[in-house]
Amino acid sequence: MRFSVAVAVCLLAAGAVFADTVVLKEGGEVVGKVTVTAKEVVVDIRPGMTVAFPKDQVKEIIFENTPREEFEARFKKIQVRDAAGFYSLGLWAKDQGLKDEAKRSFEMVIECEPDHTGARKELGHIRHEGNWLPYEKAMKAKGLVRHRGRWVTPGEKEKLENEAHARALRKEIRHLVNLISGSDRRAAERAIEKYSKLKDPAAVPALAKGATHRKSFIRYLTVKVYGNYKPELVTGPLVDRAVSDPDERVRAQAAKVLRSIKSKTAYIGLLKNFYYNPNGNVRLYSVEALSILRDRNSVAPLVESVAYEVRRVVSVPAGTPDTFIGTQSRKVIGYRKILDVYGRTVDVPIIGNVTSGFGSGGTVRKLVNDVIFNLGARLALKEITNQDFNYDKHGWRKWWKDNKDKFDPWMEKKKDK
pLDDT-based confidence at 2, cuts 50/70/90? Predict the structure, then answer.
């Protein structure tokens, strides 16, 4: 085939550096990797572009070194202690994409000049405490560890791993809850089995999805799963279920789990809801939970609140008819601090009748003392102790003083020695 000079020039412009050169008889040159066969000269100009010339059209073939061959030739010519020469060659090799050859040159530089900053940086070395160290050793010397391609402190690595683990658990638990509430019975059964065996502490926050699910059986199942964990991890959510869940079975199960895991702080949360929560149902549910929990520590605070005095202002006739327009309501007007059997301070509410409005006529306002009888406290004490001294606070106190040492922390009678 005949090959025009114009085409040859174009191919020359597209050719690669450090390749062979084919000089054509008609003029022009083609640069690329040359392969000579029996009848023709084949030139690989670039990947996917190859041309061939009959031998009788080729005037001359000039074979040139590849970049790697050029590197080796130049490397051998540099004097052993010529740091500048090796550094210059290393930069050249880097530009040519010869990573291994560049590294070899820079290593020769630091053999000549150990403190050569340029070569050290090219090799990725970092000065640490006056010494040059490879990057990885320098990072480790600084107390850092590798995490997904980054160097971080051990604390950061642990935090990142924990966060990733927690995200994975949230995804898994969400998937299990969806399967349990789904229509595929077999998949639901397998999911229930797996869900019931959850024990990883990192899963506790994610269990909130099941604990607040719209379906009560999933809330019930989640409450049972909480029983797999240490009290300090699940007391809060269990107390919340015990005093606020709309399903009586879920509330009762939450209180039973609190007892089974022997939560030492559950009674505090239950008492707070019993004393202070403005929702009447929550206060009632708290009494039920305290009755199931039967924590010895709750007895003394309940005894002190079974009956208590409050002061209130009343209007009494003064001999002439009177008129009053307004409202009266019972509110917490203060708190009294008491000590339980362990010497801990517990707040007992003081409830009074608060009157608001205006009146006229023959009345006078008078300060009186009232005794408030707390039915909830009495019922809880009755269930916990199997005793009933009605609202007789002194009777409750005396019995507790005489008998408290006969019970273990969960109000089970101690065995006689």
Answer: very low
Where helices occur in 96-230 by DSSP H, the ranges are: 99-112, 117-122, 135-141, 154-180, 185-196, 208-211, 216-226
- 193 DSSP 8-state letter: H
What dihedral angle (degrees, nearest 10) is formed by the CA atoms of 301, 303, 309, 310? Answer: 40
CA distances from 303 to 95, 264, 346, 377 (A): 86, 19, 12, 7
Enumerate domains of the chain plus CATH numbers: 5-62 (2.30.30.100), 67-142 (1.25.40), 157-293 (1.25.10.10), 306-381 (no CATH)
**What pLDDT is attached to residue 136?**
85
d(C-alpha 68, C-alpha 3), whole Å: 31
Backbone angles phi, psi at 210, to 5 degrees: -75, -35
- The pTM is what? 0.60
Give the closest residue to 349 by CA, choosing from 382, 388, 309: 309
In the chain, what percentage of residues exceed pLDDT 90?
A: 57
**What is the three-class DSSP state of 127?**
strand
Residue type, 84: A
- 206, 173 in Cβ contact below 8 A? yes
DSSP state of 73: H
The one-letter amino acid at 397: R
Alpha-carbon span 234 to 238, nearest angstrom: 6
* Separation between Cα atoms, residue 247 and residue 148, nearest integer Å: 46
* pLDDT per position as a tens digit, 122-180: 998 988 888 888 888 888 888 888 888 888 899 999 899 889 999 999 999 999 999 99
5: pLDDT strictly greater than 50: no
